Amino acid sequence: MRLYSIMKDFFEQATYLSVEYFTTKYGVSKRTIQKDISYLMRISPRKGFRLHMKRGEGYLLEVTNKVLLDDFLDTLNEGFFVPTKERPAQILSFLSIQDGFVSMDKIAEFLQVSKTVIKNDMEDVEKLAQRYHILIERKHHYGVRIHGLEKDIKAYLTDEYLNQDLVVQTAVNDVVKDFKLVEDAFIDLLIHENLNVNYNELLNITEYLKVMIYRAILNHERKEGEIQGNDTFHRIVKEITQLLQNIYQVEFSRASIDDFIVILNKNVRKRIENVGFSDTLENDINEFLSKIDKIYQTNFLQDADFKKFLLSHVTLLIDRLRDKISYKNELANKLSITNPMIFNIAIQFCDMLSEKYNVQSTFDEIGFVAMHFAGHMEKEKQLKLQSYNRIGVVCSSGGGSAYMIKLQIESLFPNATVQTFSFLQKNDLLAYKPDLVFTVLPLSFDVQVPVIYIKELLDDKDLIRIKQILQTDEYDPYTLIHDEPPYAVFFSKDFFKIVKEDNYERLIYTMAQELEEKKYGKEGFTDMVMQRESFVSTIYFNGICIPHPIETDALKNMISVCVLENPFFWNEKEVKIVFMICLKKDQIEMYKVLTTQLYKLMQEKKYVDRIFHVKSFEELMAVMKELGGVNHE
C-alpha cells in the first residue's frame, strides 16, 4: 500500500522529503500525495509520530512513541484501515472542498476503501451534514456534492478549520497564503475603533475570513456595488475587503459581506471602561475569592492583575450570556481533566454568577474562567519555588559529581544561593542555615527544613519531578531515589477493587461512601462527589473515569480505584476504570500532576488495556509506575 511505502520512506530517509519526491516515485498527482500526507498528519498524534513541514524542503518524520509507530506500520502493511466511526466525517470534509459533483470512486480512492463501503456510509454523512443545515445532493452518473446556503457551508468549514481538520486546512491554506498581513491589519483596525476581542474570538473571525476568501474564489463571486453604511463594522469591512482584493484578487458578494458583519457582531464588543454593575460585580468577585483563599490557602484576592483581568472577562461574559452568545473553548475539556480543582473553582464561580446575575455559563465558558484561575496558580507555583533562597546539597564527596548537581540545582533556582557539602560537613551545613536541602545520603541529624533525597546523577526527568515535588505541601522525600511517581503514595491496596456494576452513579456513590466512612473524605464527601457529577460528567476517554468532589478538602489523601469486570456504557460513554480522587486541600499541585498523568493514560490505549486486565493492586501500581516514567512534563 502507498501509505505504508510513504511512511517507510520517511523512516528510512530520515530527512525532509518533498511532495515532488513522492509524486515522482509513485507516479501519482501532487494532490494525491497531499491528501496522503494530510491524513498522516491528522492521525499522527495517536500513532507515535509527528510530521514537521518546512517551506521549500518538505516534511520530516519525528518518532514520538516507537511502539505505537511500529504497530501502525504493521497495520498499514496488512492493509489500510480507517475506523468506521471516522469515515463519515472524513467524507464530509472531503466533499466540502470539492468544486461540484464528485464520484463515489473518487471518494473511495481518497479513503482507500471500496465504493460499497462509501455507499453504506452516506446515510451517516447526510446526518452529519444536517447538523449544519447542509444537504447531500446525489445525481446519477455525476456523483454527490454538498448543497446548502453559503453561510451554513462557511460555518461548517470554519468549525472544521478551527478543529484542525487537515483536509479542510490544507485546501484553504493552499488558497489563502501569507495571511499574517491581513491579521495584523485587522487587529490594528480593532484597536483604532476601540473594540475588544479575546484570542478565541479573534480566531473565530480570522479563520472565518480565510474560509470566506476560499469560498469566494471557488464560487467566482463578484462585487455587487459599494458597501453602504458608516458605522464601526461597515468601516472595518470596507478596509478589510479592499485589502483582501489587493492581496488575493478576490471580490465578495453582498451576501458574503452581510454574513461577515454578522460574524463581527457575534465576536467583537466595544471596549467597556465603566460598566454599571462593575462595582457590585467587583465586590461579589472579592467575596468569592476571599472564601476560596480561606478554603485552599491561596492568594487569589491579593493578585491585583488576576482580579483586573477576571473582572474585565466576567463583565463581558455576563453581557454575552444575557444576549445568549457563547464561544467554543477547545481547551475546556482538557483543562477539566488535567486541572480539576481549578475547574471546580470555576464551576463554583459561575454558579455564583448564575445566582446573582441570572446568567447560565456553558461548559466552554466555565473553561475560559478556569484559565484565569489557572494562570494565577502558575504564578503562585513560581513564587513558591522562588521562596527557597539558600539551598544546601549534601554529596558523598566534594568532587565533580557535586559540582554537576550544584549546576543542575542552580538551573531550577536561578535566584538562590546553592552550596555543596560533603557528608562529613554537618556543622558547616547547619551554620549555612539552608531553607532547603538535597542529599544523596541519609542524614543522621535534623536540619529543620525540607529535605529531598536525590541520586548522584540527575537527569532531565528528575529535575522536572523536583519542581513537581516542591510545589506540593505533602510529599515523600524518598520519591526520587525510589523512582516512584510522586503520587504513588496516594494509592492503597485497601482501596483497589475489581467489581461488577452497570450503573455509574451507584458505583461512584458507593466508592465515595467508603472513603467517607473510613475517614478519608470528610463528612459530606459523598454529597460533594455527586454534586460535582451533576455539573459535568467525569467519564472521559477510553473508559477512564475520574470522579471527585466539587470542593477538595479531604481528611486524608487517597485514590480509590475500581476496575470493571465488564465495561458498560453510561450516557453513551464507556466505563472501564474508575479513579476516585480524595485529596487534602493543600494538594493542589499534586492533584494536577496526578490528573495530567491520568489524561496521558486515556490517550495510551496500551496502558488502559493493561490496567483493565490487572488482577492485583501490585499489577496496577507496576503499570502506573511505568506510565509515570513515560513522559513527565
TrEMBL record:
Residue ranges constituting the PTS EIIB type-2 domain according to the UniProt record: 389-478
InterPro entries: BglG_antiterminators, HTH_11, PRD, PRD_sf, PTrfase/Anion_transptr, PTS_EIIA_type-2_dom, PTS_EIIB-like_sf, PTS_EIIB_2
Keywords linked to the UniProt accession: Repeat, Sugar transport, Transferase, Transport
Pfam families registered for this protein in UniProt: HTH_11, PRD, PTS_EIIA_2
Domain PRD residue range list: 276-383
Statement: the UniProt record of this protein carries the keyword Cytoplasm: no
SUPFAM superfamilies, sorted: Phoshotransferase/anion transport protein (SSF55804), PTS system IIB component-like (SSF52794), PTS-regulatory domain, PRD (SSF63520)
Coiled-coil intervals: none
Origin superkingdom: Bacteria
Domain PTS EIIA type-2: 488-627
Name listed for the protein in its UniProt record: PTS sugar transporter subunit IIA
